[in-house]
């Protein structure tokens, strides 16, 4: 039995990625990052599309080679339709059209955010032995989104809470920039925080109703705090970097957990899954483990390699869509904003 072979393509932001999955088993997941944005302190859309254009063919070739799969073995190609940067998405979408037309195979559109939440269904050496059962609650924390989602089945997901301004990853990145850390700052805050005192500084936490999030107040509070302290001591940031990082990280985690606790309680759902780039954060992973233990939740934390943008998540989502026959038409166009 050959199984169903899906080639996944991800190009929504600044990582070009291709992955091959046979049924749920991951055979390869190749990611080419784009260093070109580093010196600008953020992703430059025009440069991102150009880099995708250069990377996509070699990245797909390596993914197929690593998987030991021939083009003729592929049953369908799954690609990210949105949300994301339009120019970046266009590269993936156009590639998908050319590739599937040449091979005479179907093309499957995937929502990038749904895909982040599907990583728990990938089978690989680094995956957990068990998968979540439906329904489960997903805390999706990335550079562009922060959402609490009830995942009802492989295709039906309901957002019950979202950020009303910045995403958690943006809060990490923008505050990291104020500390003089390179872009993206999240991972740098994470490693600095390990040596810092998280209880040293206090920053504003939002007070909003329901399951929604807000992070712009924290960013402003952090900015003013640094400005005031630097007036007294110009070396304040340099001398207190680790404590600042640790205090900032713990505030972001507190904000995330506060709403999660409420949602778990009120929905009565007992399984929670983390997803998105910020779920790589070691402080968040630890806090989630402690919280799960305390409340008796069943917790699913993704392997590090599936937290930030990758095509394995597109391939697994594509696989489940393939089983239902959800194929895209030839005239499909990418969507910078895409809902589910
Ligand atoms: O999911 P992702 O790769 O891209 C989006 O779809 O947005 O998430 C990227 C975000 C960035 O904001 C980055 O700083 C953050 O994830 N991130 C982290 C860590 N690793 C990545 N934030 C905190 N701690 C980390 N270890
Ligand atoms: Zn993402």
Q: What is the name of the CATH superfamily of the largest domain?
A: ATPase, nucleotide binding domain
Q: What is the general shape?
A: globular
Structural class: alpha/beta
The number of E-state strands comes to: 10
Number of domains: 2
How is the biggest beta sheet arranged? 5 strands, mixed
The amount of beta strand, in percent, is: 15-25%
Low-confidence stretches: none
Second CATH tier, the architecture of the largest domain: 2-Layer Sandwich
Mean pLDDT: 97
At the third CATH level, what is the topology name of the largest domain? Nucleotidyltransferase, domain 5
Order of helices and strands: EEEHEHEHEEEHHHHEHEH
Bound compounds: 5'-O-[(R)-(carboxyoxy)(hydroxy)phosphoryl]adenosine, zinc ion
Percent helix range: 40-55%
C-alpha Rg (nearest Å): 20 Å
What strand line-up does the widest sheet have? 3-2-1-4-5
Number of helices: 9
